[in-house]
Design goal:
mainly beta; 22 strands; Porin; eight-stranded mixed β-sheet; disordered N terminus; eight-stranded antiparallel beta barrel
Length: 404
Amino acid sequence: MNTGNLKTYLTFLAFVLFTSANGQDKRAQLPKFLNNSYFEINIGSINYPFSKEHLEPGYTFESVHIPHTAVRLVLAGYEFNKYLAAQITYMRPVLWVKYKYTADGIASAVTQTKTVWMNVGGLTIKPQLPLGRHFTIYGEGGLGIITRHGMEDVNGPVIKDANYATFLLGAGLKYHVNSNWGLILSSAYSPANKTVNQPYTSFFAAGFSYKLLPFSEKKLAKTAKYGYIFPKQMIQIGFSSNILGYGVNNFVSEGKIPVFWGGEAEVHHGWILNYQRNVFHGSKVFSLDWGASAGVYQSNEKKDNFFTLSLFPVLRFTFLHTKPFDAYFYYSVAGPTFISKIVIDDHQTGAHFTFQDNMGTGVFFGKTRKYNAEIKIGHYSNGNIYPHNEAVKIPLSLHLGYTF
C-alpha cells in the first residue's frame, strides 16, 4: 500500500531523544544533542527510464507512464562543522510508474495495467564549502538503499521485487536566509543495476532546510514567564477496539484530508502500555517527548495474535490552556518497532522490523496535571523500505495516564 512516507524522524531521532534524557532539568532549552541538527524538504523531478526491457519474459509491452514529480526528505541531518555534515534521506515519487502489458501465449489475454513502486533511502556524508556569507556549495556521497515493489499476475512476476544497497551521489547549492532557514537547489543520482534489472535514478529539486540552534536567554525568559506545566514523565495504559469501526482511520488516510496512513490488515482489539518522557518544551504550544511502548493485538479477520515493541518520538501541540485542564493534539511518526508476526490476515506486512505511527488528541488535568486521558489511532508499516508493505491499521484507542 501507499504509506505516504512523509515521516519526520527515523531511528536517528529516537536515538538522539534517548541520549538527551539527562537534560530534563533544562527542558525549555533545546537538547544538546539536537544542536546543529537539521531537516530538509525537497520537491522536484525524478527519472528512472523503465521500459519494455524491464518486463520478465512471457509478456508483451504496451506502454509505460513515468510520473516525474517526487519528494526527497532529509529526515535527520547533523552538521559537525561548516565543512562537513551527515544525513539520512528518503526519496520517492508522488505517483508510481504505471505499465500496460499483455501475457504471451493466451488467446483471450487482455491488457493489464499495474504499477511499480520505487523509493530510495540514503545514509550519506555531505562535504560543504561556504562561499561568502550567504551561499554554500556541497557534494554528497554514501550508501543508497533501493526498494522496488514489482508486479505480479497469475502467471508469476511481471517485474520482480528488488531490495539492494548501492551508491548514492549528489550535489547542491544552499542560500542561507538566516542562521536557521536555508533555500536549496539539489540533485541526487544512483546507478543502474543489471543484476536486478533496475534503471538508474536521477533527481533534481528545489527546497528548504531548517537548522536547530540553542535558544537565546530572552526566549528562555519568555518561556519561564508563562509558567505552564509540561509533565516530565508519564505512564499510560490503553485499550484499542474496532467497536466503532475504522471510520476515523479511513477519513484521515483515504478521505479528503490524507494526513495519516491506513493498512490492509486491521486490528480487532488490543492492549497497550506506554512510557513517555519530555525532553523539550516551548513557552506555550510545542513539546517533544520520547517514548517506549508494548502492545498485544488480535486481527479482525483471522484473529491472528501478535505483539509489538516500539521506541518513538512524540510531537505534541498544546492548543488550549485552562485552569482545570490543558488540551493537545499529538503526532508520532517513524517509531522503530519489532512486530512479532509479518503475515497478518494473509497480508504481507514486510519484516519483523517496522515503524509505529500514532495520531490523537488528549488532555492533562488536575491541579498539577497529574492525570491524562487520550484517544488516538495507529498504524504499523515499514515505509516501503521492504518490497512488501501492506501495513496494519489500529482503530481508536483510549489511554489513561499518570504523570510524575
